[in-house]
Fold:
Amino acid sequence: MNRAAVKLQVERLSVGYGERIVQHNVSFTVAAGSIFAIMGGSGCGKSTLLQALIGLLRPSAGSVCFGGEDYWSATEARRTEIGRRFGVLFQSGALWSSMTAAQNVALPLEMFTKLDAPTIDALVQVKLSLVGLDVGRDSMPASLSGGMLKRVGLARALSLEPDMLFLDEPSAGLDPVSAKRLDDLILDLCHGFGVTVVLVSHDLESLLNICDDGIFLDGNTNTAIAHGSPKALRAHCDNPFVHAFMNREQPGAEGSPHGS
Structure:
């Protein structure tokens, strides 16, 4: 598959609900084969921004371009085609509770391909094995641990062999061991299979361990106030709020959430 040097380009994006602007004038680029972080404190609009990137929320301004093509300027049919090039893991896993793990993973293949049942079953097994779930394919979501739910959700996100993954708080609710395993899996997908990853997170350890680049969103100014890898922002960001967040410190009295 031909992968452009820039997989995703966001220009002056504004998102919100009605007249309420959650984030505005946000711009960034995501390099192909990288892991890009959308960072910030709780409630700053990270997940809202993600919704605009994956086609669930039309932005009020700006553009979202995949491989140079503006998603929101395209026809509905074309947006559907573009959307099949990426997979999404929602924070809760968003599995259908009435379906087994295997049936959840098979669903996109049944909906968007013309593959026969035996081929779909074989592909489902491949995807579950890829995320480390060689057993439990017939388990119902209610019987799975948090880590296993995330892995099934990730297997489903990979079912159509996307070249881009969007992950919403992938380590949320996981114990440290499960979170580390998921981080390792994301790294393997990126470095081993060339998948480009955009993840929303405020899990500092995960951000520092796996992300190549990112933006930091502010809930007061409602825009991005810092750009760079989590490690770089931790080491030398001159914004006091970002520096405090990345170092697990309290901002000083002279600092402010939006810097000086």
